[in-house]
DNA sequence: GTCTATACCTAGATAGAC
DNA sequence: GTCTATCTAGGTATAGAC
């Protein structure tokens, strides 16, 4: 009679795998993809380098999994915000604010997702990630055009600009990093985003 | 009596060095930083790998020089366009158009300068490069505000957004690559940039 | 299943002949 | 000064003991 894994064994394995992914994510967040060697990740997870290969066929496979998990969370959050009630312009503003706020608060991860040097396989995931971000923004802009609150425009370009703008501000943080400065930065980013989409100037952003 | 290099010897050496830089630039443009090994660059220049070290102390030093030359040219071109006669809004539009056009026409180089995975030393140069681009845009936006044709805004953020937006469109080219599409893309990028800076809608971009 | 030890490969850099 | 040949370091992946 063939041996079968018990549920307990399966969940132990999965837990180990999840732990490895979580530790790898931390390492990448702290030192970037290029410095996240198999040895460094294994050390962080408290296992031997060789043991990594019990869970992933290659370092690349692990890196891709790490990227997909983190990117998926960010896309889900942004998607959720953009689907909340409100006018397209309000939702667009909140979406940009949430995107940027999360990036500022966890800049290591944001940098890893958006810009940090990485191997080609991760680069391909990154392209897909940015496309999904742009698609989310483009949908809201499109809604705004359809409902007449935004002028006609190439929604792909506006969405790409919003993604690129937040990324640019993030990668090379402007000015100081104190709390007040971050809040002002966010407000000004949102104002810029609304202008970019063609929303009429609002009294609170004179 | 000590030996001195003759002028002819000096210029021959400099010529060899320049040739090496030019070939390295080509290689980087074609295959990116990470694939531009010393061997590949030396082959391209028609010399042995070891001979590279007659001209540069390390691969990193060569890479930095390649980056600085190319980035310096781009900054000079953009600076020149932004200083030509015209209103701040006109100049801003032309600047974005020139930036994007050059990037589209030589996308390999633009990608290498703006986004391609690279070693840390090149990454540092890239940060500086992007800062210089942003400073140029920020100056024109500032002029526009001072002369009353643009609304008050954080010029650093607007400038960062313009840089990021063009980079984003560039790194993942939208749509087809035929001539007409490129021209439409450029027109729409410029329209987006002017909205982003808060320029009033013009009749030619309804 | 996990560890230790190691094989293997790539790529930067160096030494010595010519 | 340039080439050929080689050294070395760092990192992925594997083999075999436990």
Outline the structure in words.
The structure is a homodimer of 206-residue chains. Chain A is mainly α and 206 residues long. The first copy, chain A, has a domain at 64-197: Tetracycline Repressor, domain 2 (Orthogonal Bundle), CATH 1.10.357. Helix content of chain A is 71%, strand content 0%. The first copy, chain A, is built from 8 helices and no strands. The termini of chain A are far apart. The interface between A and B is large, with 41 and 42 residues. The structure holds a DNA duplex (18 and 18 nucleotides).
Percentage beta strand of chain A: under 5%
Order of helices and strands of chain A: HHHHHHHH
The N- to C-terminal Cα distance of chain A equals: 77 Å
Please name the fourth-level CATH homologous superfamily of the domain at 64-197 in chain A: Tetracycline Repressor, domain 2
CATH architecture of the domain at 64-197 in chain A: Orthogonal Bundle
Low-pLDDT windows of residues of chain A: none
User: What is the chains' assembly state?
Assistant: homodimer
The largest contact between protein chains, plus residue counts on each side, is:
A-B, 41 and 42 residues
Characterize the main sheet of chain A.
Answer: none
β-strand number of chain A: 0
At the first level of CATH, the class of the domain at 64-197 in chain A is Mainly Alpha
Q: Give the helix level of chain A as a range of percent.
A: over 70%
CATH topology grouping of the domain at 64-197 in chain A: Tetracycline Repressor, domain 2
Overall average pLDDT of chain A: 92
